[in-house]
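Full entry
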Amino acid sequence: VQLPASGGGLVQAGGSLNVSCVTSGRPLSNYAMTWFRQAPGKERELVTAISWGGISVYYEDSVEGRLTMSRDDAKNTVYLRMDSLKPEDTAVYYCAASHNTWGMPGTATTPPAFPSEYYYWGQGTLVTVSS
């Protein structure tokens, strides 16, 4: 599956951006989806994730209340709404897909945290937040 992302750009601190990622070649309903980000000189880190069917959504503490992840399986698209952006949110944002069943009843309540646990990756979209 290919995961082209779009919607990044330059925004002032306190502003908002919407980014999205499309599953191309396979239906989104086959996957749990995750957004990672990688700031210059830093490791790639998990930001937010959504389980199959959108049953569960996970947010890292640093973005809780400011970022909102959603999915539309009919459109094969996942969305990341980013509000109250801070300069430290500056990074390349990547969507990743997995067959992991986290968030489903009786399974893990948190998504796989490490990039090595994901096989499918998008090319990333740059978000720059100026102070």
